[in-house]
Amino acid sequence: MTYLIELKDVNIDIKKKQILKEVNFKFEKGKIYGLLGPNGAGKTTLLKSILGVFKPTSGDILFNGHNIYRQPSMNIMKEIGSIIEFPGFYANLTLSENLALHMSYHRIKYRQEQIDKLLNFVGLSKQKDKLFSQTSLGMKQRMGIARSIANDPQLLLLDEPTNGLDPQGIKQVREMLIQEVELNDRTIIVSSHLLNEINLIADQLLFMNNGEIILTTENKEEMNLFEIQIVQSDEEKLEELQRLSGIEVIKSTPTYLEIITAMEEPELLGYINNILQIREIKCSNISLEDLYLYLLSESRSEEDVQYAIS
Length: 310
Ligand SMILES: Nc1ncnc2c1ncn2[C@@H]1O[C@H](COP(=O)(O)OP(=O)(O)OP(=O)(O)O)[C@@H](O)[C@H]1O
Prior knowledge:
Rossmann fold, 4-stranded antiparallel sheet, alpha/beta, Alpha-Beta Plaits, 30% strand, 14 strands
């Protein structure tokens, strides 16, 4: 299977500081991915690395199988629309003129009808002749979305696109993004601090902290947390366990494991009984929100959420 985007062992250092650490992930076409994490987790840096702004210090980023830094191509960049940091527009041009300028600048052939259609899609038809400087924050965000899809890209990278919007605006953006995937088969990677908001649209969630993806999950409601006492194990076996899909090892010592999964106990045991000898297993439900807080909790040392044997 060719993935739209593949991140392979991506590390990014900026000014001698490690900002992204060993990031590995494959993004499929036609899905919405939610990137979650606190301030400074590395979400924007991850989006910028896919956009071609931050070259990995080591590792590779592939777009449709092409390495975007080793085989750079304008054609790849044309396939990516983005809102990263505040979208810049010309204050003294109207919304319609701003989009026309964007199209010309990117050598996109267009007719006024297309601009009208874009403005209509983001709910700005009535404001099309307003100067950009005279629009509200919500309107500016919508203009960002209009511009990001103007060149009909395969991939949208959106950094907190609902920042500053009221609840109605947030709902509208949500609906627009779902429509973009359903009607135009785009892939969207959207970052946010807000689990509940992103949970409403994302097919898959990526939790980040300290430059690492600490958990990925498709399940959008409750997960099972397994606390497992094991007969003394070794690093190799635990690595094998971590490679199983649908299982996240969130804590491990040679005799104890914590695993998060959507699987029920018999299914999980079917996988891990082949690898480890279990003494005792306990299961409890955990909401994604509690899991997120648990992983980010300052009371837990970073080593606790590392995947290696301590
Ligand atoms: N150009 C840069 N120069 C130096 N440090 C940077 C630069 N860009 C990002 N960083 C640092 O990288 C880390 C990750 O920042 P990033 O913006 O990716 O986090 P984030 O998860 O998007 O945070 P937020 O939710 O606050 O937007 C932070 O510690 C930040 O200070």
